[in-house]
Specification:
heterodimer; A: mainly alpha; 1 helix; rod-shaped; B: about 375 residues
């Protein structure tokens, strides 16, 4: 796909 | 009617394994679907460059071949020129909206930090609280990540705009009403009647085969996308039995069970396309030598090729534009949450600051 994935931005604090 | 709110709760080890499993799964699904779409695009390109199927339909040499007519109607029905003109016009505004939310969020952090520093200078040791700069580090990192993503999106916008510039003219032509479209296609005296010839029926059969392969891919893509398997119970059992989860081993085995078959089908689909396209190119060679080629016929053929390709460009362009629009809208939601986090913390800091000031002035 052309546009970057937003998955990393959606990861909530708990997962970090 | 009691629903247990904690029903879906699982140990962190299971949740983390699920996250890794899901990204492995997404990688496989995207790869398989990407391979098939790329193959379909390649096939469309080859056929367009050979002016197929139009060349087989183009009997009179002055009416619009059926396949070109269908392609024209298809994109008109999908919104035609207006829909991509509108989407391309909206992109910069969507980008700007996202930028403004991000800049505003970071601005209020900077502003609060400035006042915190002033008061720290004024009261020195007595200004007893964490420095705003330390407090805002995670938020600024998050803001930085969003900026990187936005910069990449801008690059994607440029690609889309270039594609739009390159193909808009032919797409516009393909979107014209039939009479105008027909007038725009150079006519040529009727091709020697090749109808009965062997090579035409061979080419027709091959085109039917390639279409069948493409239809099967659509079904295969849906099957791949809808394949589901609840891994949670598998990970829970592993954790219960062994006290730990060997995520990779479990996931790889399960994913192979689910997608192994599909991978074979995709490879088969690519292989049969390659074979059929090879045969098409050979038969087309024979077909074009038999037809009388003259300036008019060549000109007509060139236009028909461009019109066929314009349809494929439209499909690609409108999917890029939809993807971009969806991307910016989803990013806006993320940014609004980010903005709330920033304004909440700044509000809390201001309240804290006023209380501290009051205490200092009293003492």
């Amino acid at each position: 796909s052309l546009y970057p994935s937003l998955e990393d931005l959606k990861v909530d604090k708990v997962m970090k | 009617k009691f629903t247990d709110l904690f029903e879906k709760m699982v140990p962190l080890a299971v949740q983390q394994s699920m996250t890794v499993y899901n990204s492995r799964k997404a990688e496989i699904v995207n790869r398989l679907i990407g391979q098939m779409r790329e193959a379909t695009n390649l096939s469309n390109g080859v056929l367009a460059s050979l002016n197929l199927p139009a060349a087989l339909e183009d009997l009179s040499g002055d009416s619009i071949p059926q396949s070109i007519l269908e392609k024209s109607r298809a994109i008109i029905q999908q919104g035609g020129l207006q829909s991509i003109d509108q989407l391309i016009k909206d992109l910069p505004e969507l980008l700007q909206r996202n930028r403004e939310i991000l800049d505003e969020s970071l601005r209020i952090l900077d502003e609060e930090e400035a006042t915190d520093n002033d008061l720290r200078n004024k009261f020195g040791q007595r200004w007893q609280r964490t420095a705003s700069n330390d407090l805002y580090k995670p938020l600024r990192t998050e803001g930085g990540n969003v900026r990187n993503v936005l910069d990449k999106a801008v690059q994607a916008d440029i690609v889309v705009k270039q594609r739009y510039g390159t193909h808009r003219e032919m797409i516009a032509l393909l979107c014209k009403p039939e009479a105008e479209l027909n007038a725009a296609i150079p006519s040529a005296n009727p091709a020697k009647t090749l109808q009965g010839s062997e090579v035409v029926s061979v080419l027709r059969a091959l085109l039917a085969n390639i279409n069948k392969v493409k239809m099967e891919r659509e079904k295969l893509e849906n099957d791949i996308k809808s394949a589901q398997f609840d891994m949670t119970s598998k990970f829970l059992t592993a954790l219960a039995q062994d006290g730990a989860i060997n995520e990779e081993a479990i996931s790889v085995t399960e994913l192979d069970n689910i997608y192994g078959g599909y991978t074979q089908k995709v490879l088969q689909s690519l292989k049969s396309q390659e074979e059929i396209l090879g045969n098409i190119q050979n038969s087309h060679q024979e077909f074009s030598t038999m037809r009388q080629s003259n300036a008019d016929a060549n000109q007509r053929e060139e236009m028909l090729k461009k019109l066929a390709a314009a349809h494929d460009s439209y499909v690609e362009l409108s999917s890029n534009l939809k993807e971009g629009t969806k991307f910016y809208n989803e990013l806006t939601e993320i940014l609004l949450k980010f903005q709330n986090k920033c304004s909440d913390i700044v509000f809390a800091r201001k309240t804290e600051r006023d209380e501290l000031l009051k205490d200092l002035q009293q003492s």
